[in-house]
Amino acid sequence: MDKKNVRGFLEFVYDFYKSMKAHEITLVYEGEITHQITKAFTSLTESNMAKEEESNSVQKKVFHVMVECLQNISKHADSFGSDDFLFAGRGIFMVSKGDVEYHVTTGNVIENNKIEELTRILDHINVLDKEGLKQLYKTQMREGRLSEKGGAGLGFIDIARKTGRRLEYHFLTIDEETSFFILTSTISRTE
Amino acid sequence: MNTIKIMGTDDTPTVILDAENEIFEISGRSLPEDVTAFYEPIIRWLDEYASSPNPKTVFTFKLVYFNTASSKLLLDILMKLEQMHEDGKEMLVRWYYPEDDEDMQEAGEEYADIVDVPFEQVSYTLS
Question: Which residues of chain A are at the B interface, by a Cβ-Cβ cutoff of 8 Å?
């Protein structure tokens, strides 16, 4: 790097740092989500929460949501681009901690032709109350089949049940083939 | 009949299936990397056990955490027990949950709703 590039890079690092601070991000990762990554992130967050004497119930909720979000990426993030530039099982994963709540955010690339189905699933979950979610979970557990990748179609329902909130999601169009899917789960620290 | 004895890790449960000594237990945490591969020998063992089960089987679940993929496999196990119950064998599921863990208690209640097998909920204090 020449001098000008070094300066640009240093500014980027500092801006990135400030931006993380401003958004109260305690963990951010981009890349392939493997089982080892899932274990490392959950145990790191667990020990941080224990240190900060977060209540058991909040700790468990955050743990549940993190595992299901990470598994969603590893099982469902699509590949795009040429074969030597695969994005399958990759995505961005962030945990932020504010005064009153935790946010777990995932972002990954999906094919546009899957948006309709995904939207249908998420919106269906979002209209259900506590009892409705419970029934849906039971039905899905009984009737659903494990996919090849070990997905049971239960992750989103579990997130909605554990957080007690609607699933907050967005799609950003990348191009004609693909979009970026963002899901943010919020766990209250005061319950 | 063979016994299964799997020591638990931070992402897989302890599993003991020992017909001779009448120990049937799954405990700890369950989020295996490959749920199907982890539970397959357990399901297979239960299939074999079902051909000549003990007069009475008390199956203990004492889990502190399981992911959604595991929840489906736990149901498969419970359905094996249900089948034996339907075949006239005495079955009892003991579902242990930490006393402050409503979610684990509720998970037990949900399984009890789904499968037709005698179900006992037991709360305990985490040491």
Answer: 35, 38-39, 43, 56-57, 60, 63-64, 67-68, 71, 134, 137-138, 141-142, 144, 146, 150-152, 154-155, 157-158, 162
